[in-house]
Specification:
Two copies of one chain form a homodimer. With 217 residues, chain A is mostly helical. Chain A folds into two domains: 48 residues, Orthogonal Bundle (Arc Repressor Mutant, subunit A); 149 residues, Orthogonal Bundle (Tetracycline Repressor, domain 2). In chain A, 70% of the residues lie in helices and 0% in strands. The first copy, chain A, has eleven helices and no strands. In chain A, helix 1 packs across helix 4, helix 5 runs antiparallel to helix 8 and helix 9 packs antiparallel against helix 11. Chain A starts with 6 loop residues before the first helix and ends in an 18-residue tail after the last helix. At the A-B interface, helix 1, helix 5, helix 6, helix 7 and helix 9 of A face helix 1, helix 5, helix 6, helix 7 and helix 9 of B. The first copy, chain A, binds a DNA duplex (30 and 30 nucleotides) through loops.
DNA sequence: CGGGTTATTAATCATATGATCAAATCATTT
DNA sequence: AAATGATTTGATCATATGATTAATAACCCG
């Protein structure tokens, strides 16, 4: 029957986000999600069509929530670095608050790209995809190199998501294989990614370093 | 009994790589893999411990093969851009030849990081992780900014893998949502990623543009 | 050829899973 | 309180799955 808005429905959706994030669409089971929600798993079929539809709604929810936050925090930008910092910080801030949701998006991206594309295109159509607008603005103002904003955005997301997802890989490698590997916190990673986005990996040494180099600290 | 090297064993491993790449560890079934290999699925248990061990061997195989190619193609570098181009081109070239293997690594990176860490650390220990050596060399020579080479490598992998994995998402979005979205080929993506790695996203306009800007074309 | 080892298969097991449904509970209105 | 409709649950079904096993086929060496 697929009921709309209700507290129970929201609870189930949040449980689904958590479990899908941990195990992926295939790895998560209906019973897992029911248990996480503290409800009978059969209830899921009262509120949602099936497991796939629940997954689709989960990624749509996360995407919408993220775009809303981004739009809410939008401001005037002082230049390229400020503009890029806004995007990177939004990603890092969102995922610092809801770490499991990055993982959900990563699963969607990798294994269920069809569903992700469906969800994403609805945001593109309604013009509510803030990151693309912000990047487009930066390109128009010649702050950023000329390129399609979607490519720029995917590069930023790729860097951040990869950095966030590989934190535990680094942690696992560190002790045995490479004692020199530094245990960087989120703030350090944010700084490195921002430096990469603004200036690239190449050293600007020899010739004079640009003033825009360091954000803070 | 877990037999070592044999033609059949290799066939099964290749089939596993293909199926795991398509469906992930959880999504792939033993029967899928058997069918792909044209063999009885029970045979898998003759050559491999279980499904997880097969997955681990699959990512180890791909990682080793990729590192070997990288080591074979290693050369003297003329500077930061040349050095970064070598790494990006190695990734893109490997993907062009074996797209499914890159997808397998993406699955391992984002969804099965525990197994990836096990496989990766053995390469780190033996010092055969060429990309880290190449990056370390570039940093020592002040071509590249000072940072831990593993972070630099993960950034490069993140950019490339994300770009490669989102190609079909872009293709799905393009027609309906955004008619301006350009259908970039691999060569264009390579160029954009390299430009980002060398110079960042920020425009060098106003102040004079660096000579190292454009790779070719 | 023949005996013994290795490789491969069909059949099967136990369990997990997505989904359904009828019954039970709860809420709301009369 | 009775009646009606919405919500929740335990039981159940059919199927898919990872894994095992016993039997068969292929291979090899004398």
């Amino acid at each position: 029957m697929v009921r709309q808005a209700s507290a129970q429905r929201r609870t189930l959706l949040q449980a689904a986000i958590a479990v899908f994030a941990r195990k992926g669409l295939k790895g998560a089971t209906i019973r897992d999600i029911g248990r996480e929600a503290g409800a009978n798993s059969a209830l899921i079929y009262y509120y949602f069509e099936d497991k796939e539809a629940l997954f689709t709604e989960a990624i749509r929810f996360v995407m919408q929530e993220f775009f809303e936050r981004l739009a809410a925090g939008r401001r005037a930008f002082r230049g390229a670095e400020d503009r890029l910092a806004y995007l990177v910080d939004s990603l890092f801030g969102y995922f610092a608050e809801f770490p499991e949701r990055v993982q959900l998006m990563a699963h969607a991206l990798l294994a269920e790209s069809a569903q992700l594309a469906v969800a994403a295109s609805s945001f593109l159509r309604t013009g509510s995809a803030t990151p693309l607008l912000v990047l487009q603005e930066g390109i128009s103002r010649r702050e950023l190199r000329a390129m399609h904003p979607l490519h720029a955005w995917l590069s930023i997301v790729g860097l951040c998501v990869f950095s966030l997802m590989t934190r535990d890989i680094g942690a696992r490698l560190r002790p045995e294989a490479d004692p020199t590997f530094p245990a960087l916190g989120l703030a350090d990673r944010r700084r490195e990614i921002l430096a990469l986005l603004v200036n690239g990996l190449a050293s600007r040494g020899g010739k004079k370093v640009r003033g825009r180099r360091s954000a803070k600290k």
